[in-house]
Amino acid sequence: MKLNRIVFQTAFLAIALSATLLVSAAEKKGQAKSESKTIDSGSFGVFLKGARVATETFHIQQGASSSTIKSELKQTVGTDPVTQKSELQVTSGGELVLYDWSQSSGGSLTVLPKNEFLIEKTSTPAYSKPAEHSFLMPNTSPILDNNFFIHREVLIWRYLAADCKPEGASFKCQKDPAEFGVLIPQETNSARVRLDLVGDEKVSIRGTERDLLRLNLKGDNFEWSLWVDARDQFKLIRVAIPADDTEVVRD
Q1: Distance (Å, rounded) from C-alpha 179 to C-alpha 65?
Q2: What whole-number distance in Å separates Cα of residue 15 and Cα of residue 110?
Q3: 176 neighbors 168 (Cβ within 8 angstroms)
Q4: Sign (positive or negative) of CA dihedral 108, 37, 155, 180
Q5: Residue 240's beta-bridge partner residues?
Q6: Segment 82-100, tens digit of pLDDT
Q7: Of 2, 154, 157, 181, which is least surrounded by CB within 10 A?
Q8: What is the DSSP pairing of strand 5-8 with strand 170-174?
Q9: What separation in angstroms does the CA of 120 have from each of 14, 29, 58, 108?
Q10: Could you say which residues of the chain have pLDDT below 70?
């Protein structure tokens, strides 16, 4: 596709963008403080060389002033499968409130904003005192955990919310790539990633052909392909990681 922008002739983009984590406080003015709604929930199957090796169960809840993204990843192979859990809280303006991660085999971490920094505190079974790391990054920096694919959906929503503008009854999305400075907590590291909007593709999901929107996510050492459903609030449907022979599919 050689067009420099993509036109969506449906109302679903408006629904999806209002459902993102970047909704302004003005849009929330009339919402009761106690009111919250589920934006997305479900599970992803993680397949290595065609065999299912893990399942990620997730839930995104949006409140009046903040949103919470909870996820649990369970291995389905091995004699002692490991379970990982995460909880990401962000304000309606996209600022980080809290990120927590833990795993059943031991170990946990927490990321918090502190002045102009992000602070990560890491605990392991071998050390009683948490190690602390500082990152000179704004509190709007996305969290991109290695093992939770729902974080990629949140990043895509953020990209589309910034890049898609209303025009009459439809939305037009610029096709220019966008770069993000992200924090990768498990690596105790920051990185630059790039999202490219490729366009509409027909994709086979469990033997059924679907019209999905493809984006490419690239970093220094990786390249992923992601497909979302523009007719269903831009929910993430499939991820392909060719270098690892890995595929992730929404159940």
Answers
A1: 26
A2: 32
A3: no
A4: negative
A5: 225, 247
A6: 899 999 999 988 899 999 9
A7: 2
A8: antiparallel
A9: 35, 32, 23, 11
A10: 1-34, 128, 165-172, 174
